[in-house]
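Thread: quick sanity check before group meeting

JM: Hey all, I'm pulling together slides for Thursday and realized we never actually wrote out the predicted structure for the chain we discussed last week. Dropping the sequence here so it's in one place. If anyone has concerns about the input, flag it before I start.
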Amino acid sequence: MRSILQDHPRAEYELRVMQKSLKKDKKNPQKMEKLTCRDRLPAYMTNIVMMLLMIGVTFAIVFGVILYRISTKAALYMSSSPTTRSHVQLTVKTTAAIINLVVILILDEVYGAVARWLTVLEAPKTEKNFEERLIFKTFILKFVNAFTPIIYIAFFRGRLVGRPGRYLYVFESYRMEE
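JM (edit): ok, ran it. Output follows.
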């Protein structure tokens, strides 16, 4: 059974409708309207652009960690210390994992706040609609944030090294896997 509170319009929605009514009809401010798709179009476009931007940020950070691993590994292999060269794998994997963890935790909080801001910007009519839209945005952003490194490891890592006879080299002397 639905609650009366769920079907009642949110205060933010009513404010936006009142602002629209005042702009449109200054003679009869008591006439209440509703927000149309055209009224919400700027919010929807902002939502799409921001969601794609945030997903792009996640991919860029994963790519940055990959570049960090490659450059750190190459730099440590060039070290004159035999101890440093013998622990390159452990050092690079550990630091990259820690960087990945910290970035995921930070972006998790940022994406939660961005999802809430985008949902408020949309001005959903009821509390139920607000919660549904917030959950959807939060899920998408946090899913991409948490699983992009795993998807990279599962499907792309190891495939970017080339094939026998045509390996890809970094700094002209180190194979991608090295």
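AS: nice. The mean pLDDT is 80. Residues 37-77 form the longest helix (41 residues).
JM: adding both to the slides.
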